[in-house]
Design a protein that fits this description.
With 153 residues, the chain is α+β, with helices and mostly antiparallel strands. It is 48% helix and 13% strand. It has helices at residues 2-14, 16-37, 51-62, 86-99, 111-114, 141-148; strands at residues 70-76, 105-109, 123-130. 14% of the residues are buried. The model has no long low-confidence stretch (mean pLDDT 87).
């Protein structure tokens, strides 16, 4: 085997221009074939027949607003304070109300009202649900959501 590989390497080195031209031809043929017969790509990931895919299909049919993508907003109280203190809780609720007005948002979960607060009460997790999948989000949707959190900083 070593002898065969040695001869192959020596031959490729001696005819390196022909070998390079051959590889370039193969690459060009592959790219031409992909462009001609490759079809289109699909960014949607599905596994037909799996339990999670069945659940997602059922969710999409029964409750379409929950079948889109989601985002999370994490609120952290300043050191020595708790997110449940009235002034911080008001800011969290106000931020989530503003997030509910962002483009393509179908609903939000206010962490103060739904008790999505860490056990030590220093952090809270807000949920934002979109009406579309991630690939279909408009360019400015996430930027608009980020702007709604500026008051909470």
């Amino acid at each position: 085997m070593a002898t065969l590989l040695y001869r192959l390497g020596r031959g490729a080195f001696r005819r390196r221009r022909a070998v390079l031209a051959g590889w370039l031809f193969v690459l060009a043929a592959v790219f031409t074939g992909m462009a001609s017969y490759g079809g289109s790509t699909n960014e949607e990931f599905t596994i037909p027949g799996s339990e999670s895919q069945t659940a997602m299909d059922t969710l999409k049919a029964e409750l379409p607003s929950a079948a889109g993508t989601s985002a999370q907003i994490v609120f952290v109280a300043p050191e020595g304070h708790k997110i449940t203190e009235p002034r911080y809780a008001r800011v969290v609720s106000a931020t989530m109300a503003e997030a509910d007005k962002a483009p393509q948002v179908v609903g939000v979960t206010d962490p103060v009202r739904s008790k999505l607060i860490s056990p030590d009460r220093t952090a809270a997790l807000g949920q934002v649900r979109y009406e579309v999948k991630k690939a279909d989000l408009a360019d400015g949707s996430l930027t608009a959501l980020e702007k709604t959190t500026e008051a909470a900083n």
